[in-house]
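User: Hey, quick favor. My workstation is busy. Could you predict this chain's structure for me?
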Amino acid sequence: MRIAREYGPRARVGIATPQANPTVEPEMQALLPASIGTYITRLAHPASQVEVRLLHYIRNIPAAIACFGTLRLDALGFGCTGSSYLAGAKLEASLLNEATTACQIPIITAASAICSALNFLGATRIALVSPYPVNLAEAGYRYWHDHGFQLSATLRVDDSLTDTHGIYEMTSDDALDALRQIDRSGADCLLASGTGMPTLRALRKVHSEFAVPVLSSNLCLAWALLKTVAPELVPNSPTELLLR
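Assistant: No problem, here it is.
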């Protein structure tokens, strides 16, 4: 007779996040139901250049999964949107296919989860708020363009930022200010990109303020993981996870 798991009785998901990211773990635990166990591994690389670190992370997803040892995961969420932006749409898809084949579990990046959520909502024009340094922000613009989305407006949260480590000191108030400032005219959806910037409190505040849906990297990743491992628990819209 199979004994019910003490933790994660419905499913167990792994989350891989950059080593200094303080946001992914608490936001995923807040968004996913208690029956879904979440287990974190840290993506690490000693390089000082953000581009080197981010590309290393996405090229080495199987190594991140190996860190879980014999813990059998039902899916892995790759909680680093910037890695996908730098890799670009084509390379990201190739690396995901290789990692999925090698590890034999579903692997979902935050960026691909956003794509799924946008397509689900029928959104094609995005007003994009991002916390990144300029080069990484521009890589994100190309990524969304290559996926067939139009950016109706873009806004960087902090123009002075030169490295992603600064993102980890931001608060939901930073995201909230940017979401309220960005030009929303003509947008089908507002997106706060970046797994390291806290967004849940901001998204909950603007959920009833704006006429269009508002998404974030972590919100979409939680929704996509839930859809993969426990489809019967998926709400009617990604934004309904905010109301849990």
